[in-house]
Structure formats: structure tokens, C-alpha cells
């Protein structure tokens, strides 16, 4: 099969023939139908998330199960699935406590570019060299992932390549809004960032009955947020914090979700929250990067600052799929750009430049 390989940081991806070993215990082999291109992939390409190359990126996809490994229940050859970027081991302390998005075993292997057993199933055909993966290795025709990372799609959601976005953007949005933000119907939610994750947060927050204010800098993406039912604030036009306060009778938002990951936007998120409000941090910064915290505001305002990493693939991803089935979430609004695997570098550039919200690769 063919896969897009990152040879070294900050270089173009190359398409190469790759051999795939069969799935081991608890794993499934997949034929990838569509895969999303996400900012977290860009961090890997740049080495800011230091997974050692050579590796195959790509961590959200729609795929068909082509082989089921030993000890896997509930999945069969031919099933259509969405794959999440989170792989719960199901046995560690956090998995047992119901926080499988924070799986201890997964966090051990995440930056090593290997599966839960510490090895990879991919080898370059020309050299036999093992290939690492970034949370799936889904910019490829085939992949092997833990069965705990996939959720079945109902047949009526077949032929919907944009559903690849459910595995990262929408799963992250669900975790931020429902699990970490505890957003209630009628709450005002400010969302900073109008990329794939930001717009998915707008959709999930609207779906649970919140009033949503989207804060961004790209007029086209803000227009899309407005079509999704958000009020919008263009941060280029002035003081975004003052604008959000004005729209909320001076109080600020009950919940602010920060989906950019910059010093400035983290600061704005704290300043936009109402007294007693919650700030949910979703945007990632490069490893080791920090943002200052306005402690007096957090303390006196009784503000909760909550980190939110994905959501539970076996509990929440089926709910996200159900929300799409019932028309509550519409990932198709964000999927406008489709690429063949050979065009992977164009797809990456389209995301990097801000031209595309969520490029979709069709291997
Ligand atoms: Zn992602
Ligand atoms: Zn675990």
C-alpha cells in the first residue's frame, strides 16, 4: 500500500510503498477512505511535537475494517468506522476511572510514534526500515490501529468522507463543550478560534442549546461560524475581550473555549470569562511553550481553568456519530477541499496558509 512519509522535520512528504503487518491483539487493520489534515499534524511535520521520523502522520479518518486482530469484540471485516486519535488501553487507572481520553498507556506511546505494545506495523518496502506513526498513520491507504480507537458508522452515513473530522475535531469539540465545559442550555459560550476544532466547538455548543460567540480573525471562517448560528467577533477589528463583554451585558461568557493555543488568546480567554465562569483550553502549543496566567483575575473571579484533551472514543464518539445522524452536527459545512494522497503536500499547505479549514485526503 502507499503512504505519505515524513522523512525529516520541515521537509515535504513523500509517497512510498509500505508493507503492513497483520493486526496484533486488540488491533484492527483498516482501509482508509478519507483522512483529515489537522494542525496537530503540522506540529509533527515541524518537529514541535517531536515524534521521531520517518513516520506516517494522519490521525482522523473514515475507514473500512479489513482485518480484525485477536481479542477484538464487536468489529468485523467490512465495518465502516471512524478512527479517533485517542487509544485507550482499557486497563490503566485512568481508563478504569472513566477518563479513557487520559489513558496512561496511550500517553506513554503517543510521542514515540508506536502502537500500545510499543511497536509499529509498518515497514518501508524499499529498505525494510520500520516506520513510525502519528496517532494512526492515516495519510495512507491502509493502517493498523487499536480497536478501542474506532467507532462504527451506521450504513446510512456511508460515502461521507467529511466524517473523518469526527475522530479529532468533533471528538475534541464534544469533550471541550460537554465533558470539560459542562455547558448547559442557555449558557453563553465564547469560542476563540475558527479553524476545524473551533468551528466544531461552535456546532457542538449550538447543538446543546448554548448561545455562541465565535472570535476569530478570518472573515470567511467567521461567516461560516455565523451560518452555524454563532454571533461573531472579528479580533482584527479591535478589542475582542471588550466586544464579548459588550455582547454579554458586561459579564463575560459563562464558558470560554480557547482553540488557538497562543499566549495572547489564552490571556483573552481568561479576560472574557464571567465571574465564576470556566475557561476550557483546547488549543495546543509546541511542547514546552507556556502562557502567563492573570492570577488575580482567576482567583478573584473564581474562574476555573480546565485543560481538555479529546474525549472518550468508546463513550463519546458514538454519541458524536449519533448527533451527525440526527442532523445536529454538520461537518460537511467545513469540508470544502479534497485531495488525492499524491497531493498531500498541497493539502498541508492549504491548512498551513489558512486557505482551507480542514483539508480531506482521499487515499
Ligand atoms: Zn487533530
Ligand atoms: Zn488506559
Automatic annotation (TrEMBL):
UniProt superkingdom: Archaea
Domain Enoyl reductase (ER), first and last residues per copy: 10-362
Keywords assigned: Metal-binding, Oxidoreductase, Zinc
Database matches in InterPro entries: ADH-like_C, ADH-like_N, ER, GroES-like_sf, NAD(P)-bd_dom_sf
Enzyme class name: oxidoreductase
Family annotation (SUPFAM superfamilies): GroES-like, NAD(P)-binding Rossmann-fold domains
Entry EC number(s): 1.1.1.1
GO MF terms held by the record: alcohol dehydrogenase (NAD+) activity; metal ion binding
Cofactor field: Zn(2+)
Family statement drawn from the similarity comment of this UniProt entry: Belongs to the zinc-containing alcohol dehydrogenase family.
Entry protein name: Zn-dependent alcohol dehydrogenase class III
Organism, as annotated: Thermoproteus tenax
Gene coding for it: adh
Amino acid at each position: 500500500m502507499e503512504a505519505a512519509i515524513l522523512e525529516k522535520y520541515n521537509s515535504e512528504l513523500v509517497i512510498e510503498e509500505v508493507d503492513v503487518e497483520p493486526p496484533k491483539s486488540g488491533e484492527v487493520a483498516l482501509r482508509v477512505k478519507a483522512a483529515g489534515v489537522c494542525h496537530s499534524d503540522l506540529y509533527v511535520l515541524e518537529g514541535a511535537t517531536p515524534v521521531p521520523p520517518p513516520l506516517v502522520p494522519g490521525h482522523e479518518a473514515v475507514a473500512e475494517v479489513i482485518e480484525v486482530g485477536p481479542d477484538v469484540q464487536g468489529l468485523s471485516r467490512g465495518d465502516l468506522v471512524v478512527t479517533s486519535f485517542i487509544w485507550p488501553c482499557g486497563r490503566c487507572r485512568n481508563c478504569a476511572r472513566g477518563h479513557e481520553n487520559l489513558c496512561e498507556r496511550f500517553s506513554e506511546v503517543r510521542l514515540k510514534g508506536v502502537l500500545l505494545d510499543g511497536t509499529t506495523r509498518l515497514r518501508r518496502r524499499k529498505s525494510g526500515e520500520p516506520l513510525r506513526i502519528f496517532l494512526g498513520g492515516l495519510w495512507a491507504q491502509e493502517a493498523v490501529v487499536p480497536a478501542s480507537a474506532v467507532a462504527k458508522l451506521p450504513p446510512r452515513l456511508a460515502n461521507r468522507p467529511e466524517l473523518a473530522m469526527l475522530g479529532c475535531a468533533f471528538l475534541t469539540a464534544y469533550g471541550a463543550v460537554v465533558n470539560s465545559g459542562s455547558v448547559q442550555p442557555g449558557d453563553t459560550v465564547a469560542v476563540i478560534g475558527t479553524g476545524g476544532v473551533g468551528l466544531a466547538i461552535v456546532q457542538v455548543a449550538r447543538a446543546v442549546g448554548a448561545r455562541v460567540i465565535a472570535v476569530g480573525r478570518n472573515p470567511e471562517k467567521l461567516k461560516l461560524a455565523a451560518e452555524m448560528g454563532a454571533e461573531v467577533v472579528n479580533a482584527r477589528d479591535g478589542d475582542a475581550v471588550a466586544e464579548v463583554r459588550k455582547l454579554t451585558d458586561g459579564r463575560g461568557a459563562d464558558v470560554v473555549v480557547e482553540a488557538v493555543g497562543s499566549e495572547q488568546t489564552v490571556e483573552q480567554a481568561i479576560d472574557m470569562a464571567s465571574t465564576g465562569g470556566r475557561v476550557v483550553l483546547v488549543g495546543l502549543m509546541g511542547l514546552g511553550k507556556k502562557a502567563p496566567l492573570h492570577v488575580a483575575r482567576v482567583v478573584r473571579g473564581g474562574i476555573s481553568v480546565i485543560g481538555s484533551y479529546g474525549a472518550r472514543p468508546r463513550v463519546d464518539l458514538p454519541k458524536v456519530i449519533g448527533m451527525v445522524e440526527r442532523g445536529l452536527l454538520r461537518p460537511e459545512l467545513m469540508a470544502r477541499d479534497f485531495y488525492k494522497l499524491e497531493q498531500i503536500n498541497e493539502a498541508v499547505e492549504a491548512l498551513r496558509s489558512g486557505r482551507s479549514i480542514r483539508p480531506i485526503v482521499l487515499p
